Amino acid sequence: MISGRKIIVTDGNVEKALRKLKKKVTESGILQEVRDRMEYVKPTTKRKMKKGQARSRWRKFLRDQQLPPKQF
Fold this sequence. Notes:
Helix content: 55-70%
Oligomer: single chain
Structural class: mainly alpha
Mean pLDDT: 88
Distance between the termini: 63 Å
Strand content: under 5%
Radius of gyration: 21 Å
């Protein structure tokens, strides 16, 4: 499943190798695919979740556009 994802550790720098591995995994989308396959979500539920997320983004946008309350 993770074919072609190799990280070679040079100079014993494991932290750097882990960062590179994490970057490659996130760019390829493997982790997201595994999370999506863990549990089936019905299409109607997906639509409802997306609609709710859009609604919360819109509320946040409107909240940020308001003037601050008067301080007197």
